[in-house]
Amino acid sequence: xxxxxxxxxxxxxxxxxxxxxxxxxxxxxxxxxxxxxxxxxxxxxxxxxxxxxxxxxxxxxxxxxxxxxxxxxxxxxxxxxxxxxxxxxxxxxxxxxxxxxxxxxxxxxxxxxxxxxxxxxxxxxxxxxxxxxxxxxxxxxxxxxxxxxxxxxxxxxxxxxxxxxxxxxxxxx
Length: 173
Description:
9 helices, mainly alpha
């Protein structure tokens, strides 16, 4: 049998006793998990194998042995409350700029703003869209809507006033 990726299933089947033996050799791992880890490594080992350097079985055994040895050296974390070698809980080492409360409040604010905008007339929504989404000036909006720039300024002022009133009425300010 040629040692290549195309024969990967046959290789795994042929060397299954070796894979099981290596998986059972290290008590630190769950046996099923270790076997799966060994099977996953076979792909990489087949890719790296050079027939000029010796037999595949010996190379597979060597690579799996050192793979599992290296895995044993890694610090296993089972919980965020586990402590590292200095006695510090893992959760304390995690940097987070995210506040669940702030995200929650922000989502509520966004939903209320959407509701407030839905309560506006179509032309008012259009003006807000052009002003804040498209970043158009009052002059550009006026040209698009066939109104004067002064009218757009007045509309904008009234729209903001309506939105403030909506938020005050809903007791969100």
